[in-house]
């Protein structure tokens, strides 16, 4: 199978190198910098001078590009020459609207399009410890799964076209937002007199440190059940109030903590003090006009799978 790969930056070069090792894959590569392909070409990959020339003979093409503008431009060039029945898989972190537009343009040409952004960073790209969040047709995903598995250990189809990009943006947003609150946590703890390493050693042994980052939402929130509390909102409100007070005492700005306390205070005002602390999360769902209630058995199946492909 002739497989194309466009975008040989830090992530792309490593993924393309792993893809080249897959059995029965003849790799064709392109990048705006010819020298970026030197190592791959010296190991047997074929160089294509343009996206159009790469698309002419490839059955599957991967694009790993900086953003929506580049994906649109390269995607349009590829669609000039990709044959009906071929597959274009964008593994960039892209906008949902851009990938859906590309999918629609591909459909007019008989070309299948998947969005499959990745999570794992440069180390994961080199070691093949990557998750692919894939959106698009299930049958096309099944056909291309061996190629994805050659580059990452967790290719996961999350829904129809655009779903992969939604999952990736949500994942990254949560991580960077957590960084902001953790900066407040460590600034407060350190200025109050606790050694940062001792603080880290302590909090990682608490309930939040002992479980996976996202598993807390499986309790109460995803199943929409707040009236048998694991920890009451009124008690959690007291804890956050004390943390904010400590920040004030030692002169640490606590913007994210203050916003958290505001949410919890509003939830208390609703009369939810005896409900689970996560009931404050209902306020954002109300503002967004969204209702969430996941089937318990279906959620447990995800937990039991442990994210395995």
Could you describe the 3D structure shown?
- The chain is α/β, with parallel strands linked by helices.
- Helices cover 52% and strands 12% of the residues.
- The protein has 14 helices and 9 strands.
- It has a 6-stranded parallel sheet with strand order 3-2-1-4-5-6, sandwiched between helices. A 3-stranded mixed sheet has the order 7-8-9.
- Helix 7 (138-151) links the parallel strand 8 and strand 9.
User: How many angstroms does the end-to-end distance come to?
Assistant: 23 Å
Helix content: 40-55%
State Rg.
23 Å
Number of discrete helical segments? 14
Order of helical and strand elements: EHEHEHEHEHEEHEHEHHHHHHH
Percent of residues in beta strands:
5-15%
Class derived from helix and strand content: alpha/beta
Average pLDDT confidence is 95
* DSSP, total strands: 9
Main β-sheet, in a few words?
6 strands, parallel
Q: Give the overall form.
A: elongated
